Amino acid sequence: QVQVVESGGGLVQTGGSLRLSCAASGSIFSINFMAWYRQAPGKQRELVARITSGGNTDYADSVKGRFTISRDNAKNTVFLQMNSLKPEDTAVYYCNMDRVRTTARSYEYRYWGQGTQVTVSS
């Protein structure tokens, strides 16, 4: 039983900033990957950024230089700092916790948050 909850979405103007947070709770031993996805109306869900347990990061080309992903392993939390926001960033942002173990030798599972709306006005 793992719960994942996002927060920090909202309405901002072009060029503004938002900081998203996502915390996993429950019986958790480790989380290998933490990531942010987003889904805009009429489009498929896409990967925005991801970070490994060791701190290695990857970003979608569309957000490189503007977004920064980070994690707090002690709190099982991942953050997404979004700067220089554009209207095309408007979407529901979903937190993903992947390769999650509840014990050292348990099976690995994937968990999704419910999503948080980010709207960037032009």
Write the layout of secondary structure elements.
Blueprint: E1 2-7, E2 10-13, E3 18-26, E4 30-39, E5 46-52, E6 57-59, E7 67-72, E8 77-82, E9 91-101, E10 109-112, E11 116-121
Parallel strand pairs: 2-11
Antiparallel strand pairs: 1-3, 3-8, 4-5, 4-9, 5-6, 7-8, 9-10, 9-11
Plain-language structure description:
With 122 residues, the protein is mostly beta strands. 0% of the residues lie in helices and 59% in strands. It contains no helices and eleven strands. It has strands at residues 2-7, 10-13, 18-26, 30-39, 46-52, 57-59, 67-72, 77-82, 91-101, 109-112, 116-121. Strands 2, 4, 5, 6, 9, 10 and 11 form a seven-stranded mixed β-sheet that branches. The radius of gyration is 14 Å and the shape is elongated. The model has no long low-confidence stretch (mean pLDDT 96).
